[in-house]
Amino acid sequence: MPCWLDFVNFLIKEQVHIYTQYIYIYVDFLYPLSNIMSTINPDLQQERNGATFNPYELTIWWDGGTEKYEKRKALEKLFLEDPELKDDLPLSYMSHREIYENSVRKAVLIAKKLRDLRDIGELSVDTYTALLGGTLGCALLKEGNPLSVHFVMFLPTILGQGTIKQQIEWLSKAWELNIIGTYAQTELGHGTFLRGLETRADYDEKAQEFVLNSPTLTAYKWWPGGLGHTANYAVVVAQLYTLRKFRSLAPFIVQIRDEETHMPMPGIDIGEIGPKLGMKSGNNGYLGFKNVRVPLDHMLMKNQQVLSDGTYIPPKNSALTYGTMMFVRVVLIRDASFALAKASTIAVRYSAVRRQSPIDPNRPEPQIMDHITQQLKVFPQVAKAVVFKATGDIVYDMYAHVSQEIEKGALERLPEMHALSCCLKAVCSADAASGVEVCRLACGGHGYMDCSNFPTLYGMSTAVCTYEGENTVMLLQTARYLVKAYGQAAINPHVQLVPTVAYIKKIINEPKFVGFSGSSEAIVEAFQYVAANKIRIAYERLEQQMREGAIPEVATNRCGIEMIQAAELHGRAFLALTALTELQALSQKVSPALSEIFQLLLELYLVDACLQKIGDFLRFITLTEQDVNGLELHLQECLKRLRPNVVTLVDGFDLHDRILDSALGAYDGNVYEKIFAAAKKSPLNKEAVNASFHKYLKPLMKSNL
Question: Which of 25, 190, 272, 604 is the Cys-Cys partner for 638 at CB 3.0 to 4.6 Å?
């Protein structure tokens, strides 16, 4: 660690903060600090000079500690400074084939570097997270890595659903990339509704093999990343039939391409599904089967088994078979925070540089960030990024704890974890996608340009709303758990509910919430009352439908609106409580200056979240017009108080320019120069006159002469 960094750490411990000249703790910036300072946009520099806290301290929390910070910086230096991993031409000017082939080239380089890190003992889970699903990976392969599903889904599925013997056989091959896998569950005709999957695996007890078939076009596997032309193996989820009886869905390891020639195996119909809104280099594919035989021991049998004679042994809990998807949904909460961090960093920096529309006609055009309407668009996205990061860390720890319990055979908290991961995946991904779009709009016409990186950011973030469980279906799954919990509490007020739904009992014991003060604590408690009442309404209407003769499934459909509203409010109540507990706890561990920022972000997040749902609050909480006016004025006050520090706040996310990949959001703030430089890269600008002039335009203009 450089001696000057030791000096800064000493200053932080002594609670002395550096505001002037902005000694920014980015070890691996491409230029010396003096050079950076001399080229930074003066408006942006003035914002940094006026900050009241040290962004490095925020960065350390964001990264999870000094050690993780230093490892991240070293990792960024290793990968971002490698010229082989840089693109001279923007992806927008590449063909579909070129994008894929370039992504494979870089994915292989990344894999080789990972091997090198492993060989010297420097490989960790955080390294994989950064390169496969985190901000660093998006910088290197901004439209997706065709090998990601291999690491994120294929390997974890074998680990989570394979026996020890199967893990020994397959994990080493997959870990060494001797084979490349994908996870094939979703089909052309069915996605989140797993019971509707049509791919069949019929067990042939004489040959002790499973025979896989796609009986219809809609049974074709559709969407798996890397399936098109990258993977040669797949974990295939199919209907399991033994002794001519349907048993359950089951996962099978299937070889789909020859290991030497990469040609499709007999009976395999495989290809790529074509261009998409985003994730253009993910190589998503389709896969069909015609009498494809796989050995008995290729069915992953940790949770359910088929014996050689066809005897079926079911899992202890059917949810055990969905463990991989639950893990990914937990990870996606963190990804939502990263998406908002990138989008808000771009929008904030641009808002500090862009000057337009005088507020006072007697003064020069102001920074657009001085317009309160601009603040209202952008600042809450910064707060959400911080809250989602804190929540993602907490839920990840919860998942790790529950997973340990499951390994020991304790399944009591599995339904709670499933319900929580479903609704938070839905709420956070929806907020991230809409937040990215709000930030794009906040950047005006320039936000529409590809060089802003908003098109890619939006394409990647909105995809999360549908993959790993479409959001509406995720909310419905959570809602079923919630109404069941409410029913238990309604029948027996003394029942012990699990921690994340314990608040439901509040409205049973105390039907009305009175004395709303507008404090952070009051907003959190009000959120719980609102969520509990939404759950109550869903429960009561379900019961009413069934009393009138509807079967549970029909009743659930008829009450679907009430159920998704209940699940969404449950997720937002959890986010509010987590924001309160975590940010207040953090405020006790950091310097007074950063503590004030955390408290302000907490207030902004909670007040904004409350006002976004004010109709529900008015319905279930005793609120007066004065209370609502107070909330609106409190929101404006939060925006005003955050304004002097917001540039430094997004600087604290410590996002490298390569990671942002935005002409609008670069650290130096030279927006217009970068926009113009991006325009000059257009292949059309390589010639003064395009051939279409002589071929089409000139004959048109001369045709009437």
Answer: 604
The string over 438-462, giving b where at least 16 C-beta atoms fall within 10 Å of a residue's C-beta and e elsewhere, is: bbbebbeebbebebbbbbbbbbbbb
Q: Could you give phi then psi for residue 257, rounded to 5 degrees?
A: -140, 150
CB count in 10 Å sphere of residue 34 = 7
Task: Please state the length of the chain.
Answer: 705
Q: Cα dist. 127→114, 135, 423 in Å? A: 8, 11, 28
Q: Which residues contact 167 (CB under 8 A, 6 or more apart)?
A: 158, 159
CB 671 within 8 A of CB 352: no
Cα-based distances in Å from 492 to 267, 370, 413, 534, 537: 56, 55, 20, 19, 18
CA–CA distance, 17 with 667 (Å, rounded to integer):
21
Q: How many CB atoms lie within 10 A of CB 230?
A: 25
Query: What is residue 656's DSSP assignment?
Result: -
Alpha-carbon distance 538 to 565, whole Å?
9
| Positions at the binding site for FAD | 186, 225
For residue 99, report the phi and psi dihedrals to the nearest 5 degrees. -60, -45
Chain CA centroid to CA 193, Å:
21
Place of tokens 């997270």: 129
Note whether 141 and 107 are within 8 A (CB): yes
User: What is the maximum span of the chain, computed from C-alpha positions, in angstroms?
Assistant: 93
Tell me how many degrees the CA angle 700-702-705 measures, rounded to the nearest 5: 135
341 near 385, Cβ under 8 Å?
yes
Distance between CA 137 and CA 147 in Å, rounded?
11
AA identity, residue 544? Q
Nearest to 175 by CA among 127, 223, 111: 111
Distance CA 435, CA 579 (A): 18
Judged by DSSP in three states, 364 sits in coil
Burial of 589 (0-12, 13-18, 19+ CB in 10 A): exposed
What's the rounded Cα separation, in Å, for the pair 52 and 44?
A: 15
* 297 burial level (CB within 10 Å; 0-12, 13-18, 19+): middle
Q: 592, 561 in Cβ contact below 8 A?
A: no
Q: What are the φ/ψ torsions at residue 211 (nearest 5 degrees)?
A: -110, 115
Torsion of CA 290, 291, 294, 298, to 10 degrees: 60
Splitting the chain (705 residues) into consecutive groups of 10 residues, what average pLDDT does each group show? 36 36 35 50 96 97 95 93 91 94 95 90 82 84 93 92 96 94 96 90 97 98 97 98 96 98 98 93 97 98 95 80 76 94 98 94 94 98 98 94 83 89 97 98 97 95 91 96 95 90 87 86 96 96 96 96 98 98 96 97 98 95 94 98 98 96 97 96 95 95 81
Residue 671 and residue 73: Cα distance in Å, rounded? 25
Strand ordering across the sheet containing 268-272: 221-222, 285-289, 268-272
Contact 489, 508 (CB under 8 A): yes
SS3 sequence, 31-95?
A: CCHHHHHHHCCHHHHHHHHCCCCCHHHHHHHHHCCHHHHHHHHHHHHHHHCCHHHCCCCCHHHCC
Indicate the residue type of 386: V
DSSP 322: G
Q: Which two tokens stand for residue 302?
A: 């940790």
- Give catalytic residue positions: 468
- Cα 696 to the center of its chain, rounded Å: 47
251 in Cβ contact with 300 (< 8 Å) = yes
- State the Cα–Cα distance between residues 497 and 535, nearest whole angstrom: 14
